[in-house]
């Protein structure tokens, strides 16, 4: 009896979520991919406090969840902000060291990851991680014995992703650099948190990327056509013939991403 080796995908949740919450939100996709993909959900290292939350995020009572009573209710982030304007970040370095050790452990156990799937802040973190695995010397603390902790990934999914522009992250991922890992960008055209104009800045750094848009807001689309499309793309991210999940695509996904034009974009907003 033959067995199929599942692709291992590291999943990075969004701000004010955790691995458990995001796994529930991707339950339909997980079911769709159960014969081909093992999704590995992890918790970001930073626990959020009520003052870390913003108007469009969970309530104070949710932020005050007791990790000893219900660890699945604790809200987390890959980095935090020191101001309401979200201009001063803290903690990305800690998260990269956390991911470094997680990836090294996976290699040591013979369970390397094929790709990363991130949502919102997790998508931004996933893009930084993907770029860093291609060029690990950009951040010396990411190295172990002078080498990257894990081989470069074979795919990256950025759902509601954006290009982080904090001083630390710009040493790794900048408008003048790119990463070649095949990348799927999923963008909501009415996303009030990450407007398309902002998401586009990240898409322009992925020459081997594909953009798919939906008419909704800040979420990973879960209808049947999207589940089938994402499952097919995860199976073969180099297959440009996989049909779009939308009947009429706003963007021509077969043309080079840096040449996207004539797209009406909402005004910028914070993540």
Description of the structure:
Keywords: Hydrolase. This protein has a single domain (7-259), classed as Alpha/Beta hydrolase fold, catalytic domain (Rossmann fold, 3-Layer(aba) Sandwich). It is built from seven helices and ten strands. It has helices spanning 19-25, 27-32, 60-63, 92-108, 121-134, 196-203, 224-235; strands at 7-12, 37-42, 46-47, 76-77, 80-81, 89-90, 115-119, 155-159, 183-188, 209-214. Helix 6 links the parallel strand 9 (183-188) and strand 10 (209-214). The protein is globular and about 40 Å long. Residues 57-68 and 249-271 have low confidence and may be disordered.
Task: Briefly note the CATH topology name.
Answer: Rossmann fold
How many domains is the backbone divided into? 1
Give the CA-based shape: globular
Main sheet properties: 6 strands, parallel
Terminus-to-terminus distance:
48 Å
Count of DSSP E strands? Answer: 10
Strand content: 15-25%
Number of helices: 7
Assembly state here? single chain
- The order of strands across the largest sheet is 2-1-7-8-9-10
CATH class: Alpha Beta
Instruction: List segments where confidence is low: pLDDT < 50 over at least 5 consecutive residues.
Output: 57-68, 249-271
Return the CATH architecture. 3-Layer(aba) Sandwich
Helix/strand/pairing class, anyone?
alpha/beta
- State the helical fraction: 25-40%
